[in-house]
Amino acid sequence: MEGARLSDAIHFGDLISATRSMHAIFRLIDRAATASSAVLIEGETGTGKELIARAIHRRGPRRGHVFVAQNCAALPEDLLESELFGHVRGAFTGALRTTRGLLAMADRGTVFLDEITDCSAGVQAKLLRFLQNGVVRPVGGTRETALDVRVISATNRDLEEEVAKGNFRKDLFYRLNVIPINVPPLRERREDIPCLASLFLAEYTGREGKRIDGFTPEAMRLLTTYDFPGNVRELENEVARVVALHHGGWLVTEREISEKIRKYSASGFTIPRAAGAPLKSSLMEAERGIIARAIEQYGGNISRTALALGVSRYGLYKKMAVHGIRRPPAGAMRRDAVAAPAGAPAHPTHGTREDSARTPAGRRGRIPGVLRRDPPFRRSLDGG
Asked: What is the rounded CA–CA span in Å between residue 5 and residue 306?
């Protein structure tokens, strides 16, 4: 997969991307920054939701005031309530003095509530009251305080689905979901992997005082074909590990990439991630991907692709027809792209019995293109 270079990507504060989906989010951030309405950011873990929240704050009129972030899953219910709304002295055991909450600290600024779905019913009720009336009452207190705080929340779950299950208040959902932002996972914007990897490489080589000139094409291919279930955070961790173990002075090769990514690429199998996908359609999708990648790997050479996949040429043609995969034109074949599969003869025999099949009328007929000899196979100079 051809990815974008670092110089081709658009920098948007601490964010960077070369994909249209993220560029649309950048434009939405600019528009949302000038408003004071609540923002709900949805996306998988590691997609950069807090960076988006900070970008909204920094580009808006509240940038001169405090930005406060709180992970709602990090604290139990009673502590989270006290952390957000504050408490008065003697409100509970250990409350030795009156303490302001994060909402009060963020007055005229922005509060970012990550993993909002982990708030208890009690905290949800108090948040709803604050969003409706703009006032907070500390735990154990009787006086209410008016505040001017912009609330940006985030979740790695489908909040509407949580509402349908009864796990989240519908009225609070509508208060939070005024400006929704959906962040796509990294596997749906693989073009960003090269520029993000290069950015992280520059950052961590600077920290470690090393010189690493980039990634070899094969190393980058391994990264761009991996699904990264942990998204950008996992990619950053991978680059940090590579830099930490690299001696410096040359490119990052495929040998420096972690074993799980190398094994994933070698397997050629990607697990479909569509929720509720039937087994048959998932297997069909996986089979299509394996065949398409194998054809590309062997430069469109059907004989060598079939041999590598362990099927006959006729069987491969049938699979290609089922999946709507076309054979690349002869001029587009990469004759020296790869080495022959293990155990393959140097010049496989063409026109065997497997190259013909029974027609519906019972006559033996040729499959178009099967008996035509493929171009002679040539190894690359480096033996690849």
From this structure: 35
